[in-house]
Protein 1
Amino acid sequence: MKIRLKTRGELFIISAPSGSGKSTLIKLLLEQVENLEYSISYTTREPRKGEINGKDYFFVSEKEFKKMIENNEFIEYAKVFDKFYYGTSKKQVYSRIKQGKDVIMDIDVQGAYQIMKKKELDFTSIFIIPPSIEELRKRLISRGRDSIEEIEKRLNTARNELKYLRHFDYVVVNDILEEALSSLKSIIFSERHRVKRLVDTENIYKHFAEE
Amino acid sequence: MKIRLKTRGELFIISAPSGSGKSTLIKLLLEQVENLEYSISYTTREPRKGEINGKDYFFVSEKEFKKMIENNEFIEYAKVFDKFYYGTSKKQVYSRIKQGKDVIMDIDVQGAYQIMKKKELDFTSIFIIPPSIEELRKRLISRGRDSIEEIEKRLNTARNELKYLRHFDYVVVNDILEEALSSLKSIIFSERHRVKRLVDTENIYKHFAEE
């Protein structure tokens, strides 16, 4: 009988300075890579029309959310616009990893750094960077969503966020989208061959010993 | 100006139980992957017709070889058939890595384990395994090179070598050749995105800060 190596999944924390094309890349990854899922956040805001509990978000009350904070149940959480809480639950992510699924967590640079500093979780971090600040400026202008002042503010934020590069495991330059996508896929695929991710190694040894 | 990330190369130690198809896979990798080279061994045997010094091997005298052993210049070395020495020089491998080349070292399982135990070098290890002992038997029989007794001896060796799996970084099952090749490529490509392999990080930070 041919061996089939079983591996646990991995949590991929993907972060990038604003405007680096992270969301597009993650969308394509989720479409094209099997056994790869997006982490679902908990939130205290009301569901919008069409949003499904447990698919788009887990919708909970502020009381429930605060209880989860107390119990240290979040990988990270934040209060957005001083109003609603958003957070990623450890249990939710690690139960899927145990089933062999890879999970992507899309998070801003500061949030990613907070998780790294804690050093309590096992994950692989990927930093997506633009090829240059000039290119980032072009992209933000052509998007037409922000004023010149807003764009320059964003570029300054990006400059600061780029300083966190050294804390990540992998770096991918998003110059040509297809190339960046292929690099991200390589990283995800190669991590699936990690010996330390194998489960049931005793059975592997048995498989070969008994034939 | 667009950033080009410069990385140092990596030493890939590739090992496999005999008959796993390692040599074919390495040959294809070297043909298809840019900036990937084979490590050149030192040997004390005479060059065969057509062999070029510094390309196929570095041909040295036994005296020179023993001097290199004394000076701890080898990543590993062995005396084959109690007659000729073969060895891989640290300087040779690491000078190419410094130039940004990835280097593949093809080595038997025991040799790989010796290198790992020393823990003095920086490398990534990959273990190629057959899908089953039965499949290995089929391959060895269809190769028609060995007697039944010799094949059973090889299978026993393979069974023992498979126990070293846990010491490697990555594992690739060579069932369908194209799939195994693609997995190996992913591993090599993904390692090129490692932040810890970046050289000249100060320049990267400058690049983004000054624009």
Note: Strands of chain A lie at 11-15, 36-38, 41-43, 57-59, 74-80, 84-89, 102-106, 124-129, 170-173.
Protein 2
Amino acid sequence: MYQSSLFAPTMREVPSDAEAASHRLMLRAGFIRPVASGVYTFLPLGWRVLRKISAIVREELERAGAQEVLMPALQPAELWRTSGRYAAYGPELIRFKDRGDRDFVLGPTHEEVVTALIADEVNSYRQLPMTLYQIQTKFRDERRPRFGLLRGREFLMMDAYSFGENEISLNAAYEAMYEAYERIFARCGLEFRGVEADSGTIGGEGGSHEFMALADVGEDTIAFCAHCGYSANLEKAEVGRREGEPRADSANGGATSPELVHTPGARTIEQLTAAMGVMADETIKTLLMVADGQATAVAIRGDHEANEIKIKRLLGAETLEMADAGTIAALAAAPAGFIGPVGLKLPLWIDFAVADMETGIAGANKGEFHLRGVVPGRDFPLTRVGDLRNAAAGDPCPRCAEGRLDMRKGIEIGHVFKLGTKYSVPLQADFADAKGASSPIVMGCYGIGISRMMSAVAEQHRDDRGFRWPAAVAPFQAHIVPVSWKDASQRALAEELYRTLQAGGVDALLDDRDERLGVKLKDADLFGIPSRIVVGKRAAEGIVEYSERSRPEAEAVSAADAAGRCKQRAAMT
Amino acid sequence: MYQSSLFAPTMREVPSDAEAASHRLMLRAGFIRPVASGVYTFLPLGWRVLRKISAIVREELERAGAQEVLMPALQPAELWRTSGRYAAYGPELIRFKDRGDRDFVLGPTHEEVVTALIADEVNSYRQLPMTLYQIQTKFRDERRPRFGLLRGREFLMMDAYSFGENEISLNAAYEAMYEAYERIFARCGLEFRGVEADSGTIGGEGGSHEFMALADVGEDTIAFCAHCGYSANLEKAEVGRREGEPRADSANGGATSPELVHTPGARTIEQLTAAMGVMADETIKTLLMVADGQATAVAIRGDHEANEIKIKRLLGAETLEMADAGTIAALAAAPAGFIGPVGLKLPLWIDFAVADMETGIAGANKGEFHLRGVVPGRDFPLTRVGDLRNAAAGDPCPRCAEGRLDMRKGIEIGHVFKLGTKYSVPLQADFADAKGASSPIVMGCYGIGISRMMSAVAEQHRDDRGFRWPAAVAPFQAHIVPVSWKDASQRALAEELYRTLQAGGVDALLDDRDERLGVKLKDADLFGIPSRIVVGKRAAEGIVEYSERSRPEAEAVSAADAAGRCKQRAAMT
């Protein structure tokens, strides 16, 4: 394409609310423009990247045996009522009435639609296994859209659904998709990790993995062990327990009962440690929560964070929230900050790390007082003990005997999930086996955020001057920049190179604008096209300068050589 | 692809509400499935056709210099308020509030979004001309969705927008798109006509064309002249006037004034002609209408149909509707059916055909009476005369001196429209010319119904047994059908052919199912893949049967020959 006819409006200043580097660059380089909060138009360069990513996704999913379909965005609410999600989904689900006053939703995902389809069309084991996928615009009314394409309200997504007879075929489909994902992300040039993820009450162990692109802007935290390769979303990451780990204990270990200490105003762990001159890991914090309407207390070491997903799972609860001030006042003898496990009249869950303490400092269940020298098991029961907290850097790896956990930030770019029969049961998607016996179809679901992936690639492939797109997803493969478009021999050589590249299947952009070289190179850096050929004063001799965006030393080479290098570069990831 | 793993659930019985042949076949052959009224899922075969059509559209639009973008479906109502369409669009526009209580619409079209983008990003004549397009899902809450993909509520559409400095650049963009459309429809194997269409109050003459695929199921009527090639949507088709045309006149031509006739109960033209023993073309019907709140009468010959679009245009009215009973009672001296032009106290418009009558029969403006021998110009004024009716078969062509109009039914598959500055003015999309003077950008808009086109192609390419897809849009190019998949030599030859075809770029479907030949051929006819190779008992000799769906005589040929023919066939439209 000739650049003078490319619609790529660049910007010098970007809005101050563009927090992520990828978002700022996409605005600056004219890849996207906002239409509303979390809603974007893809301009030609952005759309080209999106199409290249989509093409890779299609190729790899077809290779894995999945078939492409297209389901509608408009979905009758009735289907969502049948699955139970119409009420459960919350305000992210966009709802409206059609002109006949029927309730509809705008699809944030398609489990209901696809399961209803399969319920109608599949009835025999002969039709299984099968995996369907689509690449489609999805809608979620996010509370706080941010980071450009990373958290939008309208976004492009690949979602796939597998259907099989049993766990064995589910596992096979899951593996095939997992491997396809690895190929997709690798081809797009991403540094990523497949991590264990929480799968709620369905799926069991290994029932869900997320794929995380490593990036500081990521909203997820990955806990990983460099020793054995274990990695998991922090939501899910288990905490290893090892004999002989050092234990932090508070003073007063020898007393036969806890000592009451006056701690006025010490409501937070920070205030408490300051007041008493101890470390946070010597303290126990006791949280009041409401799980499915039942009040429950949870005791965590002061330096740790409670993990609500683990707690929910351990309790088998559908909903879990922190108790509000009113609930605390009704149930506890002291205000928040002074509650403790000793003598508490509520079901009490103890985190492993608390159970492992010899003594600790805890709330006294009396306003403005704490207890020093509390001994777990002696002063409060250890009947309900479990892994209730977020893993922390330095924790022992839960899988191997030597490694310790480390933390990285990640962007969730994909998800694979063993659904089991969660949707096939309510939507009556059954099949008859060889003997004629009927069972619900066993399903998996799989998602890749296509537009989010574009941001993730951008986060990993950029510098101060602009993007550095991997060849496989770059909007163009080669950028031809004549120093002066008015110079006849430069122009002739540039156009010849353009024709050669296009004929050789290398998508080229030719900067035919009447601009200063500095302006042209600045835009070229911003766009981030992998190969660059500058056609300058040696054009008459057939000599040009070849460079790469990710390795910018320019080399004087023949035009034919430059074209060859562009072609070689285009074939790389 | 191997057919045993293709999800293409065929049906014997289709729902009785599937009125169009294309709709019935798409259901029967497993190309689509309904999710709600006017809302469909595209199954793998249907999606393949849609993708092939989209690819052709992209190729031809890129060749015409248009650039692809993707705009969002979620659009802030604010943009629609600015253009004035938020109120005007009616119940087809799906509206909802987001979680922040802001009004949004689901895009049925994108003039507002694209014009707002251009208002922000284009400011100089140097950035013009430019044409942007997208292929995207659109939403219109149709009052009566029908005919499957022909009139749906969610559908795939290509919409394009051109931006230029003036009428000249608009005309150039319009021409380029018009020609691209012709190539697109021809490549997809459609029999179609580009017809003049109404462009409302904008655009002037030649400001809008529709592309119609000829099909009896079409909801539009095309008036055309076989002699000179004139063709127009009936909404817009002009009526030619020729000297010496025979005139139908009622009796009583010699009297000096009309004669009052008692015609009890003759409220309709049918009742009137029966009661008086005359032909409909001897009568004059007088319609009361309300244009922009003003009552107006319109006189049309009894055998003609009023054309509201022409009337609206002639009156320069924004809105036009038939007067209701209350309005008639308030304004006219007689009830509907007995109103006539003689002595009527309302602005009166006369159709050319009425002005051309020597005498006629008309309502007497007195209940249960008509007037015979009414002479236009003598008994009522001919001050406001115009073309107010639909053209009818046999009418003189408005363009040439000899031809007469004929009528065909058509499906509107595309539209090109000169918008002018309708959106650029309210949305302030201005540019500065070379002298720095600012003017609004002159726009055109262009649409192709991609999913509707799929139905139109299907309507034109089918028979009792199924589809007969043109090669360019067929879901597969070649269908390999072994008589018996269990026969080792048939299977080996079929698989060899499959590999040969795939390697040669011919998309093949191999029926590897363990079914009777009759079942396989029935499905093959239904799917309508252009080339077919039946591998039967002469497989061991390397001989197969080649046939084409549109020309089913089978020929025994060598496998290599059959593969060659498939390849040749795939290259045809």
Note: The longest helix of chain B spans residues 167-187.
